[in-house]
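This section describes the prediction task in plain terms. A model, or a person checking by hand, is given the sequence of a single protein chain and must write out its three-dimensional structure as a string of tokens. No templates, partner chains or ligands are provided. The sample shown here is typical of the held-out split.
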Amino acid sequence: MRPYGEEQDWGRAFRRLLERHRRDDGSNWGGKSLERATRGYVSHQWVGHLRSGRIREPSFGKVVAISRAMGVPLEAWLKEDSDRPGS
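The expected answer:
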């Protein structure tokens, strides 16, 4: 986790989640699939902006919606690569 006061890189965290967590059928999550899974709450354009880092501070509601859709806990957004075993 980042120390208090240090800025979270949400785009990097999101790209890491996309690399590590697949859909139930084994395919990658994409903008359209996340838009469908969130019933339009998170648009595919917004997903692209988050992935690219253009969105620097996503709303809590959208982070929750993506987490639920992907089946990952909110804490997964905060884990660094160094948290992985063997790193």
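For orientation: The CA atoms of residues 18 and 44 lie 14 Å apart.
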